[in-house]
Amino acid sequence: MASLFIGSFQTPSFPVAADFSPLKTNSHAIVRVLKCKAWKRAEKHFYPEKHFYTSVKLHKQYMTQEHVGSSDGSIIAEDKKLKGRLLVHASSEHSLESQPSKSPWNSVHDAVDAFYRFSRPHTIIGTALSIISVSLLAVEKFSDFSPLFFTGMLEAIVAALFMNIYIVGLNQLSDIEIDKVNKPYLPLASGEYSMQTGVIIVSSFAILSFWLGWIVGSWPLFWALFISFLLGTAYSVNLPLMRWKRFAVVAALCIFAVRAVIVQIAFYLHIQTYVYRRPVVLSRPLLFATAFMSFFSVVIALFKDIPDIVGDKIFGIQSFTVRLGQERVFWICISLLEMAYLVAILVGATSSNIWSKYFTVLGHAALALLLWTRAKSVDFSKKTAITSFYMFIWKLFYAEYLLVPLVR
Q1: What membrane topology does this protein have (predicted)?
Q2: Lower CB density within 10 Å: C or N end of the chain?
């Protein structure tokens, strides 16, 4: 209803100054009338009249609704919309007032902030930590910490981060309408980035990732990037036989394959076979990391949809949360993680290395207790509380990669 008031209005027949002039009771009031008339002349000179008269009519309409519709909930809702539109018009039409210009520093800050949100930093941190952790599993003695090791690990991290930005960016390009409901703060959903800008960023980082993987010359690294590219594309793109995120099981398998298998095994082989030139050996710590992160990847795949239930329902994404409900999926995730921590404690207890035994048992026990304590305090009626807990799950994910190299 309020939108009908915006657009082409006829010039009102009443004098404009009548709506703005105060009661002429003293000299101050007379000055204000003169200022209002001067403002009218300036407005006609600098701006199209239709914008000025639109604001006048909006103002009259808003005042009418505020007094007439206060008892009707729907009218009040329209009243708020109209008031918001009035404020927008007023602010745009009073641009004759001095406004501070944006400094170059503010522009740079805004650009960095938009890209920071676009890149989904929690996934960036998770990818970097996982590669560092898995690379350390290939270290057998102190002399293995050579410039060659750090160079190989850095090459893997940079190439993987480029691919990570491609995957999360492509997902945002495919989900703009959904993100307007679930994540309106993302640059594409908020309008900070145009579709063209998003396509350029995503394409550039995919090319950079493959270029770096190719010039490095490591086949485990290149295949890790290529498989991640295929799964990330099939997960998001709305093409025939694709957009696998619509199907809960397939979506979970995609995240499982990337986070639990590719990251663990491919990047380990990159260090083991390409950097150290050693034969392929699937060590006990590597098998533990792969198994544990399998649980964690499934939990992340399930949990990421819990805060997004509203948008997923609207756009027909049949996630487990949409099918089973938020609270039920939440406690399934908690149960899976607690089981994983219990297995990790048992693995640590059977270690022949004393310091490894203490660190892995105590570390996983502490994380399991922290998870359970935090889970019991979540308020399911607040999306912010659920989203905050999802970020807490990622922090546990980071903490696990600090413990994985200690498993011996």
Answers
A1: Multi-pass membrane protein
A2: N
